[in-house]
Model the fold of this input.
Amino acid sequence: MTNLLLSVDAGTIDWSRAQFALTAIYHWLFVPLTLGLAVIMGIVETCYYRTRKQFWKTAAKFWQKLFGVNFAMGVATGIILEFEFGTNWSNYSWFVGDIFGAPLAIEGIIAFFMESTFVAVMFFGWKKVSAGFHLASTWLTGLGATISAWWILVANAWMQNPVAFHFNADTMRNEMNLDSFAEIALSPFAVMKFCHTVTSSWIIGAVFVLAVSCYYLLKKRETELAKESIKIACSVGLVASLLAFYTGDESAYQVAKVQPMKLAAMEALYNGGTDQPLTLIAAVPPFSQPDYANEQEPAMRIGIPNALSFLATHDFHGYVAGVNDIMRGGYVNHKGEIEPSVDEKIARGRNAITALQTYRKAKKEDDKKGMEARFTFFHLDGTLKTFWQL
Done:
């Protein structure tokens, strides 16, 4: 009989990443537009409720139809995306499920069912409920979609900056600290990520409405609808743009503190320093992995002088670490500490793994002295977290 061994090779990982990325790309095409259109159609129906003009009711129904198409596609791709956490990344889901799964479960139980309920009233309740209740349903549909985005971004923010958890050496899982759910749900990383995502989505909705309205103007069709929609879209877009400037700046500042490697990769910044420019265009090879140890700056790089230093440190002359700097370590990080090199972090991680193995073996043999390795492991938990974030 042939022995069948379960193996995970690079092909499996690559295909899992590709499938997840493809689903996420399509999901993200519809979600921001849905959040943005929710505000537009809410304002339009509010105009109808206040004036009771048939024109505004017709306009509200028009934008609600476009909202409905995007809403349906966003829900379909979003459900698939959540299932893929279990199918493609089952080990990750098991390892952090006590923390990562909580906001996703709340999103499904509260936000998803809220928006699903009121979207039905919004589409089919024009002749069945009062104008006030229908208006409330329209706004609650948008609010439900926004709350849904909140909990999803809470889960995503925890992946980017894990807080309020500990590693349980007995269960081999990361677990949420007692009475720490609020710390996860209201972490500064989650709050700013949510605010920037939502305000950016309002911009997308405003641009979409503006584009559709301009098309109607060019075709000389429904000109009144187009003109009034343009006024609303421009107002929403202006306010959202100002808010997005602030939230984007704060979000970049947080990324620079907790994910310096991500920032360096986004900016094609290999060798950092002070007075760093914000990259606009960089000639980076798209189909080859750079040799980071010997990589120089991209052959062609156009940037805004000192802008990256300001975004990352709120100082035009601030220091921003590049890929090579992070690999070598030795610079002062945002905590005022000397950043260890990648090799040092790997060594600390190996020490922690050795301590964990010692503890588990001692526990199995009921060796009290050997079980003291548990305290060594918990002492190294912080360095493991640093290595994970890198």
In short: The chain has 13 helices and six strands. The two ends are 44 Å apart (CA to CA). Residues 1-6, 380-390 have pLDDT under 50 and may be disordered. The longest strand covers residues 278-282.
